[in-house]
């Protein structure tokens, strides 16, 4: 029964989040603040992870394809498909669920326990919409760009480290990443990413918004936000893959 | 004026407020006093709608707050200013942005007008040159005064203060008391103060209700409280040896 209680309360919160905003101009500036804080603030970690993961995928592919029957450009092809289909949209989103999710739950949870949310409610401000809506829309807007950036860097990482380790030549790698390219795969990845952005921000906000107690509970909410958003994200990864690729 | 009738609130099995009734007068500081854990803050939260009641009525100028629809409640809330125990300032905003916040939501003032109103409110609570500072950069007493400035920025009809003196030194406490008292008379608003600070009671207690284990045990004013025969209230008022000696001399 507990799970149904949380699901019900989550959707009640969402109905408040998506109710008509009091003043659109305030929400517009909050949207850009969140794009900057959640999106641009994550560029560094995305860059580091993408370059190294791209390199690892390339080296592993080269190791697995050590056969005279498999052309070397298959390394580039395998790297591209791994990055576009799963690594950048799902794994980077999972990592961001940790970074962004805990930050959102911590921020909103602290506002709850220090009565800042109560202060907004007393003023007549829809605190759920004011705090959560710009985060959801901002992250849904910026995450696709971050993931395209991640794809690009991961392939650069694969190329650089593949060549440095003699796993593949630049020509073969570049030929491989262009071979039989299907734009639909990028579309599939971006659809997943928009759904993941919604899951990460809404689940983390839910845990932060209903925090009760003090500092200890804020920490617990952050942990729960990361765990639950990751689990829900993986479930939707499977569901969307079946719906869009099968 | 606010009138509370037969208000009851339980948390599970635990009875926190039982059949509480009181009339909060306009133009006077109305004090709810009592020991810690007697339900004072719960009463305040029930009155402003942050907690749901189990029974009773809260009437704002004769209109039952609990029977109002969402839009009507929102309109009443715009007439409420509240000072929370910890100030509840938005820590991602500067002092000025905190005071401007409700004005941005509910008025059509220009940026210049909002800044001017914020400056007036900050000057009214004797704060200057703090506009650009963040809450983490100012003292506890200043935070309370910023919170009062934010609460009065929308010219409220009702001002709620949850333990305005907690964590403050006696001198700053007196300043805050005087400020609340002056604002109440100046703006002719209904002010509700939750406190267990006897200095506040004797300074600004024009209309007082004493809560004991969730029930109203006594009501009166600051003159009457010193001469009451109510044993529970006397135990609270004359809690220290110094005050007990004072009472003996008084009698």
- What oligomerization state is this entry in? heterodimer
State the helix count of chain B: 10
**Overall mean pLDDT of chain A:** 93
Rg of chain A over CA atoms, rounded to whole Å, is 21 Å
Rg on CA atoms of chain B, Å: 19 Å
The class by helix and strand makeup of chain A works out as mainly alpha
Tally the helices of chain A. 9
The outline of chain A comes out as elongated
Strand content of chain A: under 5%
- Compute the number of structural domains of chain A: 1
Main sheet specs of chain B? 6 strands, mixed
Shape of chain B: globular
Element string of chain B (H = helix, E = strand): EEEHEEHEHHHEHEHEEHHH
Largest sheet of chain A: none
Helical coverage of chain A, percent range: over 70%
Provide a short characterization of the protein structure.
The complex is a heterodimer of chains A (about 250) and B (about 250). Chain A is mainly α and about 250 residues long.
Folded structure, characterized:
With 246 residues, chain A is mainly α. Chain A has helices spanning 2-17, 24-39, 43-64, 73-113, 116-123, 127-164, 170-178, 183-209, 215-245. Chain A has one domain. In chain A, 85% of the residues lie in helices and 0% in strands. In chain A, α6 crosses α7 and α6 (127-164) crosses α8. In chain B, the strands form two sheets. In chain B, strands 6-7-8-3-9-10 form a six-stranded mixed beta sheet, sandwiched between helices. In chain B, strands 2-1-4-5 form a four-stranded antiparallel beta sheet, covered by helices on one side. The mean pLDDT of chain B is 89. Helix content of chain B is 41%, strand content 24%. With 251 residues, chain B is of the alpha/beta class. The radius of gyration of chain B is 19 Å and the shape is globular. Chains A and B meet through α5 of A and α2 and α3 of B.
């Amino acid at each position: 029964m507990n799970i149904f209680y949380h699901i019900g309360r989550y959707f009640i919160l969402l109905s408040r989040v998506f109710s008509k905003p009091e003043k659109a101009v305030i929400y517009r500036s909050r949207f850009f603040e969140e794009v900057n804080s959640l999106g641009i603030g994550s560029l560094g970690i995305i860059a580091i992870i993408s370059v190294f993961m791209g390199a690892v995928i390339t080296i592993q592919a080269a190791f697995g394809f050590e056969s005279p029957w498999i052309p070397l450009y298959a390394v580039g092809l395998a790297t591209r498909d791994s990055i576009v289909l799963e690594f950048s949209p799902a794994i980077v989103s999972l990592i961001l669920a940790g970074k962004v999710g805990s930050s959102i739950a911590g921020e909103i949870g602290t506002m709850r326990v220090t009565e800042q949310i109560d202060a907004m409610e007393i003023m007549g401000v829809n605190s759920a919409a004011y705090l959560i809506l710009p985060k959801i829309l901002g992250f849904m807007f910026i995450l696709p760009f971050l993931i395209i950036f991640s794809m690009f860097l991961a392939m650069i990482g694969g190329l650089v480290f593949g060549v440095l380790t003699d796993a593949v030549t630049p020509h073969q790698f570049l030929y491989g990443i262009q071979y039989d390219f299907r734009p639909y795969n990028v579309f599939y990845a971006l659809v997943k990413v928009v759904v993941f952005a919604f899951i990460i921000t809404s689940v983390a906000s839910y845990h932060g918004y209903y925090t009760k107690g003090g500092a200890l509970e804020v920490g617990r909410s952050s942990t729960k936000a990361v765990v639950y958003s990751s689990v829900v994200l993986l479930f939707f990864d499977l569901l969307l893959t079946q719906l869009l690729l099968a | 004026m606010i009138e509370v009738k037969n208000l009851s609130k339980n948390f599970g099995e635990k009875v926190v407020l039982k059949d509480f009734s009181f009339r909060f007068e306009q133009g006077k500081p109305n004090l709810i006093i009592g020991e810690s854990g007697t339900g004072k803050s719960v009463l305040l939260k029930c009155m402003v709608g942050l907690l749901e009641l189990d029974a009773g009525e809260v009437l704002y100028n004769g209109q039952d707050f609990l029977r109002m629809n969402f839009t009507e409640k929102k309109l009443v809330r715009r007439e409420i200013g509240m000072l929370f125990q910890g100030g509840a300032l938005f820590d991602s905003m500067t002092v000025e942005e905190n005071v401007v916040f409700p004005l941005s939501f509910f008025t059509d003032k220009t940026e210049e007008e909002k800044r001017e109103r914020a400056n007036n409110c900050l000057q009214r609570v004797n704060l200057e040159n703090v506009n650009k500072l963040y809450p983490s950069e100012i003292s506890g007493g200043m935070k309370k005064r910023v919170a009062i400035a934010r609460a009065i920025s929308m010219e409220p009809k009702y001002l709620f203060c949850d333990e305005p003196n907690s964590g403050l030194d006696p001198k700053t406490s007196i300043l805050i008391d005087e400020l609340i008292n002056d604002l109440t008379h100046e703006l002719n608003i209904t002010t509700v103060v939750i406190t267990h600070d006897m200095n506040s009671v004797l300074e600004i207690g024009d209309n007082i209700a004493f809560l004991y284990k969730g029930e109203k045990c006594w009501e009166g004013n600051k003159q009457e409280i010193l001469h009451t025969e109510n044993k529970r209230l006397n135990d609270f008022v004359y809690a220290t040896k110094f005050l007990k000696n004072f009472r003996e001399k008084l009698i």
